[in-house]
Specification:
Layout (H helix, E strand, L loop, with lengths): L2 H14 L2 H8 L3 H15 L4 E3 L4 E3 L1 H27 L5 E7 L1 H4 L4 H10 L3 E7 L6 H4 L3 E4 L8 E9 L1 E5 L1 H7 L13 E4 L7 E6 L2 E6 L4 E3 L2 H9 L4 E5 H10 L3 E3 L4 E12 L6 H14 L4 H8 L8 E3 L1
Helix pairs in contact: 1-2, 1-3, 1-4, 2-3, 10-12
Length: 316
């Protein structure tokens, strides 16, 4: 019996709440996960999980030790990575979750460079706007703009994600240009649906703050769709500068309300506390920080044009 594998199977089932989901995360058959958990239960002499046809729940014993098991696995992984690092050959798989707004158009070249530097590290990159808990979903790290879901997670800030209202020249020629945030009520809007502020939008200009509630006819969780919606002349959109910048520089979209700023978000690498010493993960995060920390290049060109202030407003 491989005791680490049995602990890994137990923790995966506890986190996922399902043998099938745990098997998918571990990339093994469901029967393998079931067998490993049974071996562990036989070894400790007591059940760790209550199984029904609809759910899997921890027993009192399982509840008492699942966190310790997860921490032990994290320490073991970190130790093995340190040993590999000593031999200058980090290897294995990294499961990363990332926002499409960041991945599309920005990340591919850095992934290629990272893999050239570390050819024995395999990347499993899942791209989605969904906010995930990396522990529960089986990821080593998630790249997201929202705060960690629990105190067990660590967040390393990379760069601010700034937003800008914009529209196509054709739309503005037909409908006019908003000169004040309150004028947005007079326009057809396309907005991102995932911000935690929901319908409330705060605009900053020096010490002046305007708060308005916007009810757009177009809501979506895709910032790339919003960019295309704006370019099609369908309305005024608000999109992150990391997506908007090339459209603004080409003239396909025109920046609006440039003397006002919206609150900004940090894009952070979020990962379990127990993974802090994991060599593969730290190599990956440090590689990203070397290329993306500070003021990103897509913001620098907009600052030079006078379309963005040098310092982002109210980072949250």
């Amino acid at each position: 019996m491989d005791r680490l594998q049995t602990l890994e199977a137990f923790v995966a089932v506890a986190d996922a709440g399902s043998f099938a989901a745990a098997a998918q995360q571990l990339r093994v058959a469901k029967s393998v996960v079931t067998s490993r958990v049974q071996q562990l239960e036989l070894y400790v002499g007591a059940p760790l999980l209550h199984r029904t046809t609809r759910s899997v729940k921890l027993t009192e014993l399982g509840e008492a030790y699942v966190k310790d098991c997860a921490e032990l696995l994290g320490r073991a992984s970190g130790l093995l990575d340190d040993m590999r690092k000593t031999q200058n050959s980090p290897e294995g798989k990294l499961r990363i979750h990332a926002l499409p707004g960041f991945v599309l158009g920005h990340l591919a070249a850095q992934l290629q460079e990272f893999q050239q530097l570390h050819p024995a590290i395999n990347l499993d990159l899942f791209v989605s706007d969904t906010v995930v808990d990396p522990v529960k979903e089986g990821f080593d790290c998630t790249l997201q703009i929202f705060s960690p879901a629990s105190e067990e997670l660590v967040a390393r800030k990379m760069f601010p994600v700034r937003r800008v209202f914009c529209a196509s020249p054709a739309y503005l020629a037909q409908h006019g240009t908003p000169e004040n945030p309150r004028n947005l009520h007079e326009h057809r809007l396309g907005l991102y649906s995932g911000y935690h502020t929901r319908d409330r939008w705060d605009f900053f200009r020096g010490h002046e703050v305007i708060s308005i509630h916007l009810k757009p006819p177009m809501l979506t969780n895709s910032v790339h769709l919003l960019a295309e919606y704006g370019c099609a002349g369908a309305g005024v959109v608000c999109i992150p500068t990391l997506v908007a910048s090339p459209y603004l520089m080409s003239g396909e979209l025109v920046p609006l309300l440039t003397d006002w700023q919206l609150s900004s978000f940090w894009l952070s690498a979020i990962y379990p506390h127990t993974s802090r010493r994991g060599v593969k993960l730290q190599l990956f995060i440090n590689h990203l920080l070397a290329h993306f920390s500070g003021t990103p290049v897509w913001d620098k060109v907009l600052i030079e044009k006078g379309w963005l202030c040098e310092e982002p407003a109210q980072l949250v």
